[in-house]
Design brief:
Elements lengths: L6 E6 L7 H21 L4 E9 L3 E8 L15 H10 L3 E6 L5 E8 L7
Length: about 120
Amino acid sequence: AASGGLDVAWSVDPALEPTGPVAALLRQVLREALTNAARHATGSRVRVRIERLPGDRIEVEVVDDGTGHTQFDLGSRTGLAGLRESLAAHGGTLTAGPRPEGGFRLTASLPAREEVHA
């Protein structure tokens, strides 16, 4: 992210210990969010928050200040749309879009553990 021109501040819940598919999904969320910020908001400040919520969920929030935004693409089959589909397939959700005060926010919720299906 830093090599993409971003100033990133991280807040990560120390109780998190995702493994397997949950860890892979978490990496996918972060990769997409930070890639989009680097691509569309070069030079911005980005805040990343990852925390465990009650109900055995993980929430990821990536917010940038919008300093360098050039465009928003919320409808392609790849990128955010593909991430939304991946999260939904694992019981997660995604909201993403411009903030009224400027910048962009992505919030993802995903299960803290991969559920076992009988």
